[in-house]
Structure formats: structure tokens, C-alpha cells
Protein: histone acetyltransferase
Amino acid sequence: RAGLVRARAAQREGGGGGAAAGAAARALWAARGAAMFRFAPCVHVLPAPRSVAFQAEGACKCNGWKSQNPPPTPPRTDQQTAAVNLTEPCRSCGHPLADHVTHLENVSEEEMNRLLGIVLDVEYLYTCVHKEEDADTKQVYFSLGLSRTKCILQMGKPVVEGALESPPFEKPSIEQGVNNFVQYKFSHLPTKERQTIEELAKMFLNQINYLPLETPSQRRQRPPGDDGAEYKVNYTRWLCYCNVPQFCDSLPRYETTQVFGRTLLRSVFTAMRKQLLEHARQEKDKLPPEKRTLILTHFPKFLSMLEEEVYSNSSPIWSEEFQAGTSGGQMPIHTGEFSRPIASFSFFPITWAGEKRKTAEPLIHDDVKRPKVMGDIPLDLINEVMSTITDPTTMLGPETSLLSAHSARDEAARLEERRGVIEFHVIGNSLSQKPNKKIMMWLVGLQNVFSHQLPRMPKEYITRLVFDPKHKTLSLIKDGRVIGGICFRMFPSQGFTEIVFCAVTSNEQVKGYGTHLMNHLKEYHIKHDILNFLTYADEYAIGYFKKQGFSKDIKVPKSKYVGYIKDYEGATLMGCELNPSIPYTEFSVIIKKQKEIIKKLIERKQAQIRKVYPGLSCFKEGVRQIPIESIPGIRKEIKDPDQLYSTLKTILQHVKNHQNAWPFMEPVKKTEAPGYYQVIRFPMDLKTISERLKSRYYTTRKLFMADMQRVFTNCREYNPPESEYYKCANLLEKFFYTKIKEAGLIEK
Structure:
């Protein structure tokens, strides 16, 4: 553009008219801009209407303005551009250079600047083509470069060509979904705490907008399970509408969170979450204190809760008809308030779940479901024991076979679900939406199953409730047909759900399907914040419901359900209270694994016993009871109080000087960790321990060790496993027990 100005100035100094000056400038633009189009498929930068001279001589096909040896990189902007004499002949065809740009004389300067901007975009795209190693990405860059070239040749407006559709690509968008999530889960919080959550949501959305997605070729290297073709389409859309427009001004730019929905979010959420938290831990020292607390403490919990809604096919936040609760209004969360990612975090992609209702196996993450280390059992020992338990050949007891007589009732059903033999879907009739043929067929199948298995119930009554829009049914599908289900009605305002029908077809019973059905129903209700079941069970069903945790001791106040559910003559009212911290579909597996861990630990402990004390003979002499402390080997303490004080003081000083002790130096502040003291009933910190030690509170080593252990246990109880605090607690705990052993307070 500077050359354009100089060419016009030179033309004015020579006394030329305005048209000649415009031609001079445009000839310079043609010579400079066209040199950038090294892969342009045409001979002239802009299509020139054939002048009278050209018509006499025939169409001029010259490309003499092209550089025979183009530079490998764009010319530097600070270099001086030599003035061009438009009267000089073209070195290829002999025409004056001015004749090649006569068609640009009437083009406005604004239009010229627009076309010059597209020239720069093509140069950027050309550079990207040569630098990019991924074939799919390179193809997109090349196609965009060709379409920009075509736009210049036709002097038209840039468009993205191809069958990519126009934004937005999915509704609701990621931004709307996250906004719905905040209102759905946190609208009941006080204003200050809700503002903290909103800040976390904005931070999360902002990171997605600057997230470099994983290329399709990289995803092909992953185990099969996600839709590679669908991801490739979304990746191409993201390049064309979100990524490339960041450096190509001729393309309109859209925010990723405003044009994409849950499909893309599922593809990138898991790895993005992991990379984000890892980067936060690495950059924690560079963050201001308030941001450090926000990111290291609250952000992991926020992401864990959001992850459940992202991968849940029944989450209400992804419905276009979502309406916020009535507990206070909330401002929508937008990403425009941040111009760049906070703390310069950089992220990477991945993972996607299918269309079926969430199963336990694909969505259980090791870092989230990892067993918490309690007491003084070292983490290394737990991991070592877990590795042996994972191998069936080393497992103890009668459970060594895959499905033994001691296996859980739902073990066979769980294995069939993992293999895709059975599926679980929550379905229901709707008066506002167009009927879905598959769902209607399933509802008819459920009506038949309930009618056959519950002969005492009138068929008209069963049909009315199954097809009632207020009722839903958790259906069990095997080989495309219904083999069982649980029909229920939710009463969110009253805090309970009534189970109306529960049945499995007779030839599919005694396979654990009934237990697995109920476990899926429990998890479904936990996600919807309903923690109580009520049902009227006849004499044949009481045994089943007792096995599923139901009892006649009803926890729901009578005022909550009277008038909402009918009384059934000859039936017994039973209730079940759900624990939101229990993963019911995996509960039996967890119990079994815990049992094996205990067996292994006992076995190892017995093998480590070196010193054997003599048995007690006092009881033969008529003694009825003795103090526990008098039993040999039960208690081994340092008798000198001063020596104990000195030893504990030294150990505590080492702990406080450790690099991972910084989160535990002082009591937790309520402003930094909302709700901490509702979760942690007995807080402890190194400052309090120091004060207790100074006042000679610790008369035994066990009192001191108990307080230290409480510091680590509280941390792991409040913080998620992927947080920085959780990891600091594990590392500091390991260091503490090393020092305890070195001091001889416990056996090595």
C-alpha cells in the first residue's frame, strides 16, 4: 500500500492526470500482489476487459509480471519498494505495463484496499500450506487459498465454499449449554458464590474459543469408539469459521462456543480438562493469590460437575426448551468479556461418547474415581495391591472365576451392557413433539411386558400410565426389543419419585437385569437431584425391593406424598433413600475390589511381622481383665516427654519446610473455600499443630500423628483428585511418614 501511495505521488510529480496515477498505482499492485499468488491458476491478477489494442492483437496471455524465482517467504514490509515506470514495456509481451491494468481505473480506493487485504490473506494461507504437516489441515488451507484467489479474480466477496453449512451448526450452543448448567446447578447459591461460579464458566468458555483442536489424523490413532467422519466435518468448520479468520481478515470470525454445540464439546472435553488442570498446576506460582485459589480449588470441581452433564444424554441443559429454576434470576454468561485466555493457558483436544444412555465404563475416569487413601496406608502400597487385584490370576478367595456363585447379582447384566448386548433408555410419550416411531414401538413393547408380568393390573390402567406424558419409563432393550422396564413419575417439587411398574419378561429373569435396571434408575435420579423413591409393593415384589435397598421405614415426610400418590389395597408402601456419592451401577464392583484390597493388605501385614511376643498367661491365674497398654507389643512410646517434644518439633519443622506444605500452613479461610466447614467437621492445619506442640498437648506420638493425618485426610475429602492440593497432600504425607520412620516413632 505504501508503494501505491508512492506511485501516485510520482505520477503527480510527472504531471500525469488522475486516471494515469490510478493506473500506475494499480500496475504496481498487480506486479506486487500477483507475485504473491504462486499457486494462482490464472495469468492476470484481476480479469482485464480486452482493450481496443488487445482486440487488434488478440487476447494477451502474458505472465511477464510473475517473478521467475519467487522468494520462499513474503517480502519484508520495511523494505523500500522501487518505483514502477508504467510506460516501460512488459518484458514478456511488449505491451506497456499500464495496458495490463486499464480495467482497474474506475475501482475505488476502498475496494482496492479490500482486494489487497485478500492478497495478504492468500499469502498467509500459502505460508500455512508449506508449514503445515497434517494433510487434512493443509487441504483446508489450500482450498481456502484457491477460493480467495477466485474472489480476487472475480472481484467478489469471500465465501467458504463446500457443503459445510453456515453457522451456527448446533443448538443450543456450548455457550448456552454452559449458561444453562450454571443456572441448573447453582442458581440457589448466594450472590457472591454464584458470581464465583459465573467467573469459572466464563473462564471455561474463553479457553474453548482459543483451543487448538486435534487434527482428524491424530484422532484416527485412537482406539475406535468415536465418529471420525463427524469430527472431521466439525474440524473443517472450526478451521474455516473460527481458526483461520483469526489471521485472515477477509473471512468472518465466529466464536467456537457460539456456533458449536454439545457434539464438539464432547469431542474435546476430556483432554482439554486434563491439559487445563495440568497447565494450571505448572503455572500456579505465576498466578495472583485470588486466581490461584479460584483455579486450583474451584475449577476442578466445576469441570467435574460439568463433565457429567456433557456426557449425559438425559441432561436438561442441552434442551432448547430449558428454563431456569425459580430461585433467583441470573445473567447469561458470554465469552466476549475476555479478549484473551486467562493466564495464557494453552490447551489440546479429545473424546466422544455415543448416542446411547451413558454407561458406566466409558465415562468412569481413573483420576475421578480413584480410591482415596485414608489412614496411614502409603499410596504406593495401594497402587501395588491394586495392580495385583486387576490380574484375575492373583486374586484371592472364591471370586477368581469371572462369574462365580459369589458374584454380584448384576455382574452378568453389567458385562452384557459393556459388550453392547443390552441398552438402557429413559423414554416417554410427548404431546408437544412429533412421535418417534422407535420410541412408540418401545412403549408398546413395555405395555405388553407389564401386562404379561403383572396380570393383576388392568391392561387399560397400564396403557394409560405408560403413555401418560407425565410418566417416564427406564426401558431395557436387548437385540432391539423391549425385555423389561421401570415406569415412574417424578415429583421434583416434593423431592421424590413414585415407581409405578417394574418388570422383566419371564424368559429373561434371574440374570441380574432387575438389579441393574434399578441401579440405572438410581443414578438417573441422582443427576436430577431427586433422592427418594416410593412404591407400593405387593407380596411378590417386597423381596425384590428389599434387595434394592427399599424398606418400610419411609424417610419422606407424609405431608410430602399424601395426595400425590394413590393407595393400593393389599400393597405395602416402601421407600428408598439414595446416596448421591455412590455410583450405583458400579457399586458391587467397588465393594468387591475393596474386599480384595483388605485381604491383600492383611496378608502383607502378616508377612511383615518379625517380632513375636509371648502369649498372655495371666488369665490362667484368674485375672479377668487387664489394661490394653500392658499387652506386649501393643504400645511402644518414647517415655521421656522432653525427648518426645524435641523429636516432634524437629519432624514438624521438616514438614513445614517442605515444598508441598504451602496449602496447609494456616487454617482454611471461608472466603477462599465456600462451604469448606460444612464438609470438613474437624479442620486441622500446621499452624494449629505448632500451637498444640508448643503447649505440650502431644503427650504421645499417636496424638501428633492423628492431627497430621487429619490435615491430609481433610484435604483429600474436600478437593478432587486432579487438584493441586490433593497431590500436595499425598506428597507431603509420604514425606511425613518417612520422617516419622527415620525418628524411630514407627517401625520401618
User: Anything to note?
Assistant: The first strand starts at residue 422 and ends at 427. Residues 1 and 589 are 70 Å apart (CA to CA). The first helix runs from residue 2 to 13. Strands lie at 422-427, 472-478, 481-491, 496-504, 532-537, 572-577.
